[in-house]
Every structure is written in C-alpha cells, then in structure tokens.
Amino acid sequence: MRILIALGGNALLRRGEPMTMAHQIANIRRAAAQIARLADHNQLVIAHGNGPQVGLLAMQAAAGGAKDVAPLDVLDAESEGMIGYLLEQELANALPAARQVATLLTRVEVDARDPAFAHPTKPIGPVYTEAEAQLLAEHNGWHIAADGSGFRRVVPSPKPQQIAAVKPVQWLLEHDVIVIAAGGGGIPVTLAADGRTRTGVEAVIDKDLCSALLAAQLNADVLLIATDVEAVYADWRTPHERVLRTASVAELRALKFPAGSMGPKVEAACDFVTRMGKRAVIGSLEHIEAMAAGTAGTQIT
After folding, report:
1. Which candidate, 198, 199, 176, 200, places its Cα nearest to that of 80?
2. Which of 8, 125, 265, 283 is an active site residue?
3. Domain that holds residue 237
4. Is the pLDDT higher at 298 or at 128?
5. Rounded to two decimals, what is the model's pTM?
6. Could you read off the pLDDT of 3-22 as tens digits, one per residue?
7. Residue with the larger pLDDT of the pair 102 and 21
8. Among 48, 36, 74, which residue's Cα sits nearest to residue 289?
9. What is d(CA 107, CA 209) in angstroms, rounded to the nearest whole number?
C-alpha cells in the first residue's frame, strides 16, 4: 500500500514538555520505531507538524533586535529541514540498512486572497499565561489566542491549494525510498498571474490539510493521521462522550470538533475520503500497525 502518515505534535513535543532538543529527539525516536513497523511491503510518505518549533525559531530570530528578521516562510523551511533531519536519522536507524529515507523541502501553493491572512488562527510557539501573552503581543505586534488553559501566538493559516513539486516525491517512492515531505504543512507560496513565478508568504499551513492534499496528489491508498488519542470521540469531555470506531464523512461532518485539535484532523480526513473515495484513519501513534490494518483508531469511509 501507499500510505501517507501525518504525525501530530505529540510525535515531536508533548504538551507541557520543555522545548528542548533532547525531548524532541526522544519523542521522534519513539515515532520512528512505530513507523518502521509499516515499512515492509508499503510505500511510506511522512508529514509532520511544526507549530512549537517554528514559533521558537521566530522568537529566536526576533531576540537579536535585528530589523531584517527571517519571514515565516523561511522559518517554515528551516523547521522542515530540522525536523525532517531528525526523523530521517531515527527512521534510518530503525530500518534495515538497504531501505533509504529522504527529506524534501516542499513548497505549497496558497491563494493570496485567502481570508485567513486577515484572521490569524494557527497557534505557534510556546504556551504562555495570559499576562505573558499580552506583554509579548504588545511588544512584538503579535496576535494571540487561547489554547487550552494558556495562550499562544497565532498566525495566518491559508488553505493549501496545490503541492508545487509533487513529482520528486513520486520518483522516490517508485524507488522504494521512504519520503518525509510537507513538514509543518509545507512552505507557503503564492503563484503570480504569469502561472510560473512563486513568492513566499507569512503563514503556517495546517499540517493535516496539507497532508490530505499531498495524499490525494500521490494517489495514496490510506491517509493515516497519528495523534495522542486512540480515536475520534463524539461529545468529547462531556457526560455523553463516546468513541467512534467507524464513521462516514457525512456522520463526522454532522458533529462538532475542537478547532485547535481534532477539528482539522477530521476535516482533512473527510477531504481525502471525499476526493479519493479511499480510507482515512485517525488514532494513536502507538497503534499505527493496527490503524493501517483497519482494526484500530477511527476508520473513515
């Protein structure tokens, strides 16, 4: 099978953990060990989030006081290379020596007129108290929003329209290379009226929506969204909470899910299933083999 695996933030940095390289490497090592279980007889593409990392890079870039700091699209590329390297290293260590792994920087086209540019919603960077967030917002000109019990910086998150260079991914898959691509939702670029010139823009694309688009463009058999819960829950954290083992697109779209967590994952899975008529699954990284086999997580058809 050709499987696209979208790794949630728990695979990189768990909520509440200090943003240290040691924690990231330990989490990525655990993720790589699970992904390696699917490597035999499957073509694998791996995407991942970058919210905490790109936010930290933005803070570091601004800390020096320089006026000409790197824009978000450049920081997206930087985080994609950094996390991709760590994933590639740990996967290569977990796989037979003959199986190759490659990381690709991935440009993703967005619409310059997307209303998301006027309404930032994508959380990046660390979690702050409300007082800390307000001070940082005033000092740096940031937009902030609640995220769980804390507050985070939010940036524009336009909807991905097209993967700019999908053929290199296809070529590598045809040679049995495991590909890490579209990390952090890819690098957002806009396409000029000439249909050729692309320009980077200040944004962070949702990783799950970009993963669904890449899975569709690659004609993947399964979109597998690995997160930190065993499945999708209806009426989450209410007395009526229940796990959904199987669900149709229509059933899921009739329910409401948190915008900052499960909502984008459900939307991405539904987009892929609707577009391709194939299967998506959302569940825990710890059950990745069973998710691919159809016996764990929420199977969406």
Report:
1. 200
2. 265
3. 8-107+160-300
4. 298
5. 0.91
6. 999 998 666 777 677 778 88
7. 102
8. 36
9. 14
Catalytic residue among 8, 9, 84, 186: 9
Type of residue found at 174: E
Query: 126 near 20, Cβ under 8 Å?
Result: no
Tokens encoding 149: 């019990």
The reply to whether 207 belongs to the active site is: yes
Name the catalytic one among 125, 184, 207, 297. 207
Burial class (CB in 10 A: 0-12, 13-18, 19+), 194: exposed
Q: Which of 8, 10, 183, 184 is catalytic?
A: 10
From 8, 51, 122, 186, active-site residue: 122
CATH number reported for the structural domain that contains residue 229 in this entry: 3.40.1160.10
Query: Would the pLDDT of 200 be above 90?
Result: yes
What is the structure's pLDDT at 55?
Answer: 77
Q: Could you tell me if residue 78 is inside a domain?
A: yes
Is residue 113 situated within a structural domain?
no
Cα 55 to chain centroid, rounded? 14
pLDDT (mean) for 261-287: 95
Residue 123 located in a structural domain: no
Question: Residue 123: is its pLDDT beyond 70?
Answer: yes
Task: Look up 122 and say whether it is catalytic.
Answer: yes
Whether 182 maps to a domain, the answer reads yes
Q: How many independent structural domains does the chain possess? A: 1
The answer to whether residue 159 is catalytic is no
Establish whether 9 is a catalytic residue.
yes
